[in-house]
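New to this. Please check this fold:
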Amino acid sequence: MRGSPRLPPGDFAARTFPHVPARGTFYRCAVTARPLLDWDDRATSRFSSPTLPFPVLYLSESRITGFWECFGDELNDQPDGHKALYRTKHLAPRQWVRFQIRPPLRVIDVTKAATLRKMGADAGTFLAEYAVTQRWVEALMSHPANLDGFFYRSRLDGEAQCLAVFGRPHLLRAHKRFGAKADGLLLKDTRLLLFLAEQDIGVL
């Protein structure tokens, strides 16, 4: 029988984890009407909540991973052979935003089994229900290591990595550190439209 979801252990604040740098290029499949640096504090996001110490900036390692993070749930709910996105509702309001992070952020990688073990977590911890994942993020935000965020595995794009950045005050002010730039509308991205056709996803 499956046990209850694992929560942060009582000695979490005393534990240490291997840090890794987060640098280079990342992407968001973003709403054009929102700021390029779109810090999220919604309770409806996996690692966000108005009750957490900081908002979160969600990034992905590729445009396609960002696409799946935005639309994967909705497409999974549609039957095979009838999957589709609407130009006006889904694609027209969104653009790619490209990030060039430097200097590197100080994060941990929760896709690594060794890191999870040191945390007292397991492979399902960061894929659990939001009430659980938000408890873990609160513990990470409050940890004495003062982490900038963590790498995690996309729930909707297999082995692809994503990055959750904590909106600590020094990062909220550091706009240039993220190098965020609008990088084209989804509807004008011929590579994306070809990808949708290859995946048998209609554009209506």
Notes: Residues 10 and 120 are 10 Å apart (CA to CA). The mean pLDDT is 95. The chain is about 25% helix and 25% strand. The two ends are 44 Å apart (CA to CA).
